[in-house]
Amino acid sequence: MRLLCALGLFSALLHVTSCLLIGAFNIQCFGTSKSKKTDVMDIIKEIVLRYDIILIQEVRDTDGTVTQSLMDLVNQGSPQFRNISSDPLPLGPGSYKERYLFLYKFQTVTVTGSFQYTASGFERPPYVVKFSSTQTAVTDFVLIPIHTKPGHAVEELKALDVVVDAAKQKWTNNNIMVLGDFNAGSNYVPTRTRSTIPLFDTNVFHWLIPDNVDTTVSKSGQAYDRIVVTNDMYRGMNPRRAGIFDFEKEFHLTLDETKAVSDHFPVEVKLS
Ligand SMILES: *[C@@H]1O[C@H](CO)[C@@H](O)[C@H](O)[C@H]1NC(C)=O
Description:
The chain is α+β, with helices and mostly antiparallel strands. The chain is built from eight helices and 13 strands. It has one domain: Deoxyribonuclease I, Chain A (4-Layer Sandwich), CATH 3.60.10.10. The strands form two sheets. Strands 1, 2, 3, 4, 5, 12 and 13 form a seven-stranded mixed sheet that branches.
């Protein structure tokens, strides 16, 4: 993968289309206290550096300081990332608020639009972002982030169809990727409910992270985190290699060091 992307970088220099790596990472309770742990932040930095675009979830950052410290860290030395995020979204009746945060490499990707989905139906309503890339055959595409509430996963996954339509209509663009912690594992999304969820319609969508992928650090065997693309995007961008980024193994971490970062592994896909 690294070699392929290195070759991709080389061909980018020759103005040949290459690859784009997109990830989605639920960084459990990513707030002020985690952002001050340098060991943890160094690992998060190394993870972020892999991606052209990474969606980060569970960002508990009302005043922007957590985002700023992450941006400072990943841009240390040579600035290459910009960010775009939702406002802090209130979580239920409690005082917690979380953002959807995207970091992207501004030399390969630009943001060309965004909107906050506001209709009801979600604990964390998606903040939809349109990107444009010089690295992919399809140059314009839309990312819809979603982190569902476990007990509401079925209802929220059902409601995503409306968000996909809203994005399609706003930008007349059918290249759409839905990504994040769907909680599409355990008993949260029972198999019998799938026929009621438009996102599972294989005429329209393609699930890149199948059920047998374990996205949890605890090795619970559950594919909570997913990446789903419209068939248009699937055909146009020929997704190669989707899966988890097992940073525990890749960075030779102990289980405790890994858990200090998150209870989830990032999921990722490379587009051509
Ligand atoms: C990150 O986002 C904040 C808030 O939108 C913005 O003020 C800041 O300039 C962004 N930083 C970068 C490097 O993109």
